[in-house]
Amino acid sequence: MPTQPAAALNVIFGPCGAGKTTYARTFARREKAVAFILDDWMARLFGADMPDPIEYDWMVERVGRCEAQIWSEAAAILAAGTPVILDIGLMRRADRERVRQIAEATELPLVFHFVDAPQEVRRARVADRNVVRGENFAIEVTPDHFEFIEGVYEPPEPGELAGAVISISE
Fold first, then answer.
1. What is the per-residue DSSP string for 100-132?
2. What is the rounded CA–CA span in Å between residue 68 and residue 17?
3. CA distances from 35 to 56, 83, 139 (A)
4. Which of 85, 76, 79, 66 is nearest to 9 (CA)?
5. I need a labelling partner for 136 at 20 to 30 A (CA). Which of 39, 41, 44, 158 fits?
6. Distance CA 85, CA 28 (A)
7. Per CATH, the architecture of 9-168 is what?
8. What is the per-residue DSSP string for 5-53?
9. What percent of the chain lies above the pLDDT cut of 90?
10. Taking a C-beta distance cutoff of 8 angstroms, is the pair 37, 24 a contact?
11. Stretch 15-43: mean pLDDT
């Protein structure tokens, strides 16, 4: 019996408000892929228990739990030959490198997708998303939370973008 070709692991990354989730959902519909959106998982599993203001240690521990489950589900879907899209943050270079190492160790075809927009556009999108609460709303991102994420985010170095699909909106 012939083996099915390996499906690609598509990993979306970029700063807060860049349009990663919109990109992931559109890409999933077009490619008949399964998208895993971390914010959706966090909102569904932990939204009712989320402290206000958000506590970093509380969030990081739950993000880790969500990521572990996402990886487990994604591996099964990839093994069945269906492409997967991960929109799981990856704000730091070390996070993106960890994903690259996992893909290499498991011999998964990996495609990074970098999504970006100018900071003022991203800030306005987040403020609008908080009010409209449409398809891409999962968790409110307050101005303070936006600034915190901006401080954590590490833009990609040129080498990280080699072979990546790049989408920059204005």
1. HHHHHHTT--EEEEEEE--HHHHHHHHHHHHHH
2. 24
3. 25, 9, 18
4. 85
5. 158
6. 7
7. 3-Layer(aba) Sandwich (3.40)
8. PPPPEEEEE-STTSSHHHHHHHHHHHHT-EEEEHHHHHHHHHGGG--SS
9. 62
10. yes
11. 94
**Token pair 């012939």 is at which residue?**
2
What is the identity of the amino acid at 144? D
Straight-line distance from the first to the last Cα atom of the chain, in angstroms, rounded to the nearest whole number: 49
- In the predicted model, is pLDDT for residue 3 greater than 50? no
Please report the pLDDT score of residue 43 as a whole number: 87
| Domain map (residue ranges) of the chain | 9-168
* 110: nearest Cα among 89, 86, 90: 86
**Residues in CB range of 56: below 8 A, 6 or more apart:** none
Q: Which two tokens stand for residue 162?
A: 């080699």
Residue 169's nearest CA partner among 23, 10, 12 is 23
Coil/strand/helix, residue 168: strand
Whether the pTM exceeds 0.85: the reply is yes
Tokens of 31: 């490619």
